[in-house]
Amino acid sequence: MNNNHTMDNVLLIDRCLNLHKKLYPLIGKMYLITDQNDDKPSTYKEFGYDQIIEVNTLTNNDIIDLAISIVKTKNIKHILSFDDKYQEIAGKIARMHGFWFPYDHGVCDSVRNKAVTRNILSSKGLDNLPYKIINDETEIDKFIEDYGYPLVMKPLSSQGSLAVNIILDSSELKKAIQLFEKNAKNQIMLLEKYIIGKEYSFECFSENGNHELICVVEKFKSEVYCVGMGHRIPADLNSSDLFRMKKYVFSCLSGLGITNGPTHTELIFSPSGPVIVETHTRACGAHVPYLIEKLYNIDIQTLWIHQFLGSTIIDEIKKSKHSEKTGVVWFKHSNKAGVLDHIKGISETYNTFGVLKAEAIQTKFKTLENFTKRSEDRLAYVIVVEDDHDEALNKAQTAINSLDVVYI
């Protein structure tokens, strides 16, 4: 793996601060174009940026104009985006200047648009799930008439389970529409037939068209809003099912034109076989990278950075040794509306349950709803690593249940 980028100046288009921190020691100067938001760094030096350019609404034309100016004046060698929302435009600008970019033209936009993803995979015989882009409520009625319940309502392009609802019957439809309009403003609605089965995510890296699997994550989700309750690594799978799903995922990645970079692919193993939910041109989140490093001694975020800088990383993955242990991350969810004061019992989980890591996610004065509807609104998490598969899960769940949510 080539690490010689210490003289290279980099332009970033996103706000993935955790990755920027790891990138900074490896390169020369770091410049950032980003949307204005509440979590901006208090000082530029704190995160190593030489310059931050913030705009109220980041359009593609804004990004192109700003990037051209920065490339001309700052001796930029790489244009990067770790946020799949901005990767397509970052790739366009990189190619305009003759810089390498891991994803080919159109790939990132095709992957972000769930309907386009299904259309491409359907054309290659890899997907036959009924779906429909919704323009008005009459189209909802027609979809239900054709395919019936249950179904899934989701935004066409979004992250973090935002406004994703499972609708079991007609009594839940009106509420789901209201929640979509509230939580997914200006988003296009997509309906899909609900798939019954266990959900998994496949964490992969691709290089020159070759795909390597790092691990399979077993996903546990709430039954209504599809927000993750927790994750277990490795997933509880027999070798036959694992081989079948892995082959399917690799075929989907190739079918979508993904030849380089990390991917986070979610699928459901239905009675008739694996069905893709969605994939992403990025690595996983939700503390899974931490668990992967603890279990397999692979820092996937550092590999991600090196590959985006143009280095070869597949051999690093092939050399990794998998642990016989099991890791679980489990989340505390809101089940009562109110204003948060604090989460009680975090420090006690270390001695009482032997957790590896425990931390509150939300801070005082956070307004809580009756149910956690977005991944970003989860309250706290614990991480457990154990020799036994079931013990790891039970210990993590018990530790989370011991935490008390204290309201103001």
Q: Report the average pLDDT across residues.
A: 90
* Total number of strands: 19
pLDDT under 50 segments (min length 5)?
none
Proportion of helical residues: 25-40%
Strand order of the largest sheet: 13-12-9-10-11-14-18-16
Shape: globular
Number of DSSP helical runs = 14
Characterize the largest beta sheet: strand count, sense, and whether it forms a barrel. 8 strands, antiparallel
Look at the helices and sheets and give the structural class: alpha+beta
Distance between the termini: 51 Å
Beta strand %: 25-35%
The radius of gyration is 22 Å
Keywords: ATP-binding, Ligase, Nucleotide-binding
Protein name: D-alanine--D-alanine ligase
InterPro entries: ATP-dep_AA_Ligase, ATP-grasp
GO molecular function, one term: D-alanine-D-alanine ligase activity
Short description:
The protein has helices at 17-23, 44-47, 60-74, 87-96, 107-112, 114-123, 137-147, 173-183, 239-255, 288-296, 300-308, 314-318, 348-353, 389-401; strands at residues 9-13, 30-35, 51-55, 76-80, 131-134, 151-155, 165-167, 189-193, 198-207, 210-221, 228-233, 261-270, 273-280, 326-332, 338-344, 357-360, 367-368, 380-386, 404-407. The protein has 408 residues and is α+β, with helices and mostly antiparallel strands. 38% of the residues are buried.
Explain the layout of strands and helices.
Blueprint: E1 9-13, H1 17-23, E2 30-35, H2 44-47, E3 51-55, H3 60-74, E4 76-80, H4 87-96, H5 107-112, H6 114-123, E5 131-134, H7 137-147, E6 151-155, E7 165-167, H8 173-183, E8 189-193, E9 198-207, E10 210-221, E11 228-233, H9 239-255, E12 261-270, E13 273-280, H10 288-296, H11 300-308, H12 314-318, E14 326-332, E15 338-344, H13 348-353, E16 357-360, E17 367-368, E18 380-386, H14 389-401, E19 404-407
Parallel strand pairs: 1-2, 1-4, 2-3
Antiparallel strand pairs: 5-8, 6-7, 6-8, 9-10, 9-12, 10-11, 11-14, 12-13, 14-18, 15-17, 15-19, 16-18
